[in-house]
Amino acid sequence: MQKGFQLIEPKILPPLDPDFRPAALANHHFLKQVAKSQQGVPLLIGLERSGGYLSHFTTQVFPDLHPDADANLAYVERLLKFLLWQIGGWKVYVGGPKGIADYIQKCYSENGLRRFDYNFMQKDVYEKPFTVIHCDPHDVPTKKESSKSLGRHLDGCRVGFDLGASDRKSSAVIDGEPVFSEEIIWEPKNQSDPDYHYQEIMASIKAAAEKMPRVDAIGGSAAGIYIDNQVRIASLFRGIPSEQYDKVRNLFIRIQEETGVPLEIINDGDVTALAGSMSLEENGILGIAMGSSEAGGYVDMKGNITGWLNELAFAPVDYHSQAPVDEWSGDRGVGSQYFSQQCVFRLAPKAGIEVPAGISDAEKLEFVQNLLENDHAGAKKIWQTIGCYLGYSIAHYADFYDLQHVLVLGRCTSGSGGKVIVDGAREVLKNQYPVILEKINIQLPDERSRRVGQAIAAASLPVIS
Fold first, then answer.
1. DSSP notation for 326-375
2. I want to staple 89 with a disulfide (CB 3.0 to 4.6 A). Which of 47, 126, 346, 447 is the partner?
3. Distances 442 to 128, 391, 450 between C-alpha atoms, Å
């Protein structure tokens, strides 16, 4: 971290991670210092993405010539990193001090500190050169959001599917009522043949279709980034060679053409939030799925899906200089290492648990979860640690999302682990952020929603012409 940017020790330390330094505490302390100086100046960050949509985030920083101006750099770099993975963007407007813009341009460049994000956004997601522009705050283009109603269509005979890293689910839904659901184990990320994915996904669709008199629409959810039914980047297809990736890119367009019915596929996190919104009949929902990685999704206060990335696996939540490194992005302290089975495996040795080698990740997670169900003290500390992480991270997420509910789910929350996580998060907020706890309800879905709710919500995505 740059000189002057202070990390704050939390009131409640995670049992297995005393070095944890929450993003929310550091950011809030920085803003208090800026306000105390009475010399703060506005900073308006604009992020432009596909379709000309543009989002704003406004904050305060020190002016360039202030003695504490160096603290701006760490604050804004981490802030922009979060915004890029929350919202997305190929063009960034830095409306404020030039020193900040210069630093961001240096970081987000071909050889810069954030070259992974720079390349990912321009090559894999938006297919446009990643650009950072310095300007005055009033010269940042006008905000234009893409919030739109999607889902909640329950008429007709629909197939819904959900593609996870270790299993895929499908449901047959007739006028909003599920008549069939199945869950199949698969290993997509290890497959190099695009036809494997096509055949397996079609098998799930056909299995559901056979339980209905006809198919009027198909809706799907999957980990990754999808724009207009095109696969931009997804861990499910990590094993596909780059020279064959075009076959995957248009996979769902091909399925729509072959089935001849409306089809929509979106990020699994957004469908998680949609499923929660449909179940609770409430809006302002952030869904956090803790599985092989962290998946996020959001339904806004109007009940709409925003078109944002919501890839919280890459969003920073811990600012400690020795925070764990994400193997894909190379960055430290991002969500994938805190809300996933990766986190469980990382913490297991600290809890005195030796996870067996030579078995699948799903089996490794089950091994540790069985210890938890048998009251193993070390295993309980793992889930208590995740709960502490979550409490401080919800305080962080609340600075970026307008929230009424946080829905927590995924394989890591199965059994008693989910309750331990939620109880831990609530305890953190009670002690350090009581106002947020009063405003936001943190909860687990019921068991039925955990198993089939995702596929049913996905089935509701398309409009039947």
1. PTTT--BSBGGGTSSHHHHHHHTGGGT--PPSSS-HHHHHHHHHHHHHTT
2. 47
3. 38, 10, 15
Backbone angles phi and psi of 392, in degrees to 5: -70, -30
3-state secondary structure (DSSP) of residue 122:
helix
How would CATH label the architecture of 157-270+454-459? Answer: 2-Layer Sandwich (3.30)
Q: Are 44 and 56 in contact (CB under 8 A)?
A: yes
Q: Which residue has tokens 């939030």?
A: 273
Same topology between domain 157-270+454-459 and domain 280-447: yes
Q: Is the dihedral of CA 203, 204, 209, 210 positive or negative?
A: positive
- Phi and psi dihedrals of 54, rounded to 5? -145, 130
Cβ atoms of residues 291 and 412 within 8 Å: yes
* Residue showing tokens 């809300």: 339
Q: 285-290 and 157-163 as β-strands: parallel, antiparallel, unpaired?
A: unpaired
The confidence score (pLDDT) of residue 396 equals: 98
pLDDT of residue 151: 84
- Dist. CA 446–CA 279, nearest whole Å: 10
C-alpha distances (whole Å) from 150 to each of 74, 176, 435 are 37, 15, 31
Q: What is the pLDDT of residues 324-379, one digit of tens each?
A: 999 889 999 999 999 999 999 999 999 999 999 999 898 999 999 999 999 999 99
Low pLDDT (below 50) residues in the chain? 451-452
pTM for the model: 0.90
Whether domain 280-447 has CATH 2.30.130.10: the reply is no
For the chain, what are the domain ranges?
A: 23-139, 157-270+454-459, 280-447
Give pLDDT, residue 449.
55
pLDDT of residue 149: 77
